[in-house]
Amino acid sequence: MLKLYYSPGACAMASHFALEEAGVEYELVKIDLRKGEQRTPEYLAINPAGVTPALATDQGVLTENLVIMTHVARASPDAGLTPEEPGFDFDRMQSFSGFLGASLHPAIGAVLFGKPPLEGEARAAALEKALGKYDVVEQHLLRGPWAMGDQYTVADGYLSVFTRWLRQADLLDKDRYPKLNAHLNLVQARPAVVRALHMEGLEPV
Ligand SMILES: N[C@@H](CCC(=O)N[C@@H](CS)C(=O)NCC(=O)O)C(=O)O
Question: Which segments constitute the GST N-terminal domain (predicted)?
């Protein structure tokens, strides 16, 4: 059976949403980042990078949300969690998720979870850089109502992780990010997403 190593509220939620949307059987294993459980020898044997998520499968371990989400979507094609593949729309979804994972996530992560925490001018500069990434999604990438247009895909769950973080920090400004606000509300109204949040001990924000 699939086994997802996750940390409540962290980016692994994107993979968790995908599993719940797909309706496949899986087991959850909690890794407490605050206690440093991502650096135990047991977990490093699963993911030597010492981060969550990791998905243990019959064939081995997969890491990176983008890859895990796609793997899960393929395991459950009837759930329709990606555009048809191979195909350009599928590739466009991967471009979207790639931007989130490689550009937006590190930018906002440095502001919200930097160790040591950023302060003063350094924080202000890092925050504006991160918000600029959200501007790109708001103004150019998010087609509406879902990221790719009419079809909900795994990229939507992924985006919602980062808009949740921004809303929790009181930074998802309604005037600057009207589309991102509406999108987050839509994602958090999905039964599969609410189920996954509850499993992590969380509520929609
Ligand atoms: N690009 C990776 C990022 C994984 C990542 O950075 N996870 C964070 C939580 S959001 C983590 O486990 N951090 C623990 C640490 O850095 O010690 C992915 O999308 O899977």
Answer: 1-80
Q: How many CB atoms lie within 10 A of CB 77?
A: 12
Nearest CA to ligand 1 atom 17: 51
Token look-up 């606000």 returns 181
> Can you tell me the distance from the alpha carbon of 92 to that of 97, in angstroms, rounded to the nearest whole number?
9
Distance, in Å, from the CA atom of 187 to the CA atom of 17, rounded to the nearest integer, reads 10
Q: What is the pLDDT of residues 152-201, one digit of tens each?
A: 999 999 999 999 999 999 999 999 999 999 999 999 999 999 999 999 99
List ligand 1's pocket residues with C-beta within 6 A. 7, 10-11, 33, 38, 50-53, 64-65, 101
pLDDT at 164: 98
Homologous superfamily of the 2-80+192-199 domain (CATH): Glutaredoxin (3.40.30.10)
Q: Specify the ligand 1 atom closest to the Cα of 36.
A: 17
- Among 141, 140, 113, 110, which residue's Cα sits nearest to residue 126? 110
